[in-house]
Amino acid sequence: MTEDDLFKSNLQGFGTKIGHITNKITAITNLMANYSPESKEYQVLKYRTQCGQKIQQDEIDSAKGVKPFKMPKEWESFKANRIKDGDSDDVIARKNFNFKICAEKYPYFFQYRYLSMKRDYDAYKNAANSVSISKFNKTISEMKKNGVFSNEELEFIKKYDANCPMDESPGVQNRICWAVERSIDGLKTAKIDGISCLEVLNCANISQNSLIKVRILCDEFKKEVQKQAKKYIKIDQKDGESFKNSTEILDFYASEMYKICPNEEELCDILIELCYNEGYNKDILWNACGDVVASRLLNANGGYITYPKCVSGNEIEPLFACCGKKYVMETLCRGDDCE
């Protein structure tokens, strides 16, 4: 094998749909929870997951020059199963069956990984709940929890499920997700005493001319982030590529802001004003002036910093637990006046 062979193999590995195929297999598996293992639907879906693993392997091997076998559209697209004029009875029956077990929707828990899915789902559910409350004086969840429906309620729920952008089948991962949601439902974020960024803002230090120019860059940054989000939120994109591009965007706009305002103290005040009083994305503040903000907050708090410290054993009563580990809040002094 020569260096040219390796280069060609790497080149062929770009643009593969390994992630997309994996997610589709997950979607197919989630649908299996709707059927008994003896049913035709369950058996067909199980077969498709097995085929999906082969399709996934072929996609991986495409870097070696192997032409991958594509997943049939009927498995993942409602559109591919639409009945057309002239379809025979057998074709209609097959399309109806495929439509019933089509994995076009992704499982409910996917919304916590792909923000565009969560946005679409929340918008859909909020709109449906508004209609449900006005018609039945209860939310979708309350109706489903009750389990007893009038004919009108049952018809409403069927339409809701059919048009829902996420698959709410009771697959294992969905059930885990719902259990976690129930466990944190009603919890409130604990109020933590401390110094906020606005308390270290020095408005007198801001040049209005620089403020206007940096605001324009913040608007451009916002548009670029939205543009990239639409491009990379697609689930067949590589996470690393998305992260790399978002980091590059932050670095670019931070650099452009320093061209406008080379003084990091003044730029810090400008960005605190824009991000905390005008609602711009705070990522640009912490990327451009994170050290300055941290230093100001530390000095304003007398040099003291409080952070969660992991503890073991039973000697100390933990304040909270996370991921199976126990934590207490530890306070250290990192300022110039510390002993």
Jot down its keywords.
339 residues; single chain; two-stranded parallel sheet; 3-stranded antiparallel β-sheet; 4 domains; extended; 13 helices; mainly alpha
Characterise the protein shown here.
The protein is mainly α and 339 residues long. It folds into 4 domains: 1-104; 107-187; 197-301, no CATH class; 302-339, no CATH class. It is built from 13 helices and 5 strands. Strands 3-5-4 form a 3-stranded antiparallel β-sheet, with no helix packed on it. It is extended, with a radius of gyration of 27 Å.
Helices and strands, with pairings:
Elements: H1 3-13, H2 18-31, H3 40-61, H4 73-76, H5 89-100, E1 106-107, H6 115-136, H7 140-146, H8 151-163, E2 166-167, H9 172-184, H10 208-232, H11 239-260, H12 264-277, H13 282-300, E3 304-311, E4 320-322, E5 325-333
Parallel strand pairs: 1-2
Antiparallel strand pairs: 3-5, 4-5
End-to-end distance: 63 Å
Q: What is the residue-averaged pLDDT?
A: 84
Largest β sheet strand count, sense and barrel closure = 3 strands, antiparallel
The figure for the number of domains is: 4
Q: Counting H and I runs of at least 4 residues, what is the number of helices? A: 13
Class per helix and strand makeup:
mainly alpha
Global morphology = extended
State which percent range the strand residues make up. Answer: 5-15%
Low-confidence stretches: 233-240
H/E series: HHHHHEHHHEHHHHHEEE
The share of residues in helices is 55-70%
Q: How are the strands of the biggest sheet laid out side by side?
A: 3-5-4
Oligomer: single chain
Rg is 27 Å
Would you count the extended β strands for me? Answer: 5
